[in-house]
Design goal:
By secondary structure, this protein is mainly beta. The strands form two sheets. Strands 5-1-2-3-4-9 form a six-stranded mixed beta sheet. Strands 6-7-8 form a three-stranded antiparallel beta sheet. A hairpin with a 5-residue loop joins strand 1 and strand 2.
């Protein structure tokens, strides 16, 4: 069953342990809530965000993560997730920050604590939710 994407949509993410995690659609990423439940609920708590992650288009449209509700955004500023960093694999000392659709030069110091700019598949998100951080790449000192 396919489903349409819309900013503010909340998706239930089935986990291998029988629980559900929840992701809210932002522009270009999902906010993953720290809240978990044993059954799918229609109003999950997003007061604490675990992490933000960009996912492939089909992850949200294929129906494997069912839409449970929509929490509209207050204004256009709220629709963006946090900045991410880009590190040039050929020139590893070159750093950039991606934010709100724009890329700018940055120092490593500015990137510390930011997640790498990447698009994840559903199994990678589930790995991370289950505690396997092999896919996680946060800029460190």
């Amino acid at each position: 069953m396919s489903q349409r994407r819309k900013l503010g949509n909340v998706y239930a993410i089935p986990l291998p342990n029988g629980e559900y995690a929840y992701g809210r659609e932002y522009k270009e990423c999902l906010a993953i809530s720290k809240f978990r439940s044993k059954e799918i609920i229609s109003n999950p708590d997003f007061s604490e965000i675990d992490f933000f992650v960009a996912v492939y288009y089909d992850v949200l449209t294929c129906g494997d993560w069912p839409k449970v509700c929509n929490y509209p955004f207050k204004d256009d500023e709220d629709i963006w997730g946090p900045p991410t960093y880009i590190r040039d694999p050929i020139k590893p000392d070159n750093y950039e920050i991606y934010y709100k659709g724009e890329i700018r030069k940055a120092t490593k110091q500015e990137c510390i604590g930011l997640e790498r700019c990447a698009v994840w598949d559903s199994n990678h998100v589930i790995d991370r939710l289950m505690g396997n951080d092999i896919w996680t790449d946060i800029c460190k000192e």
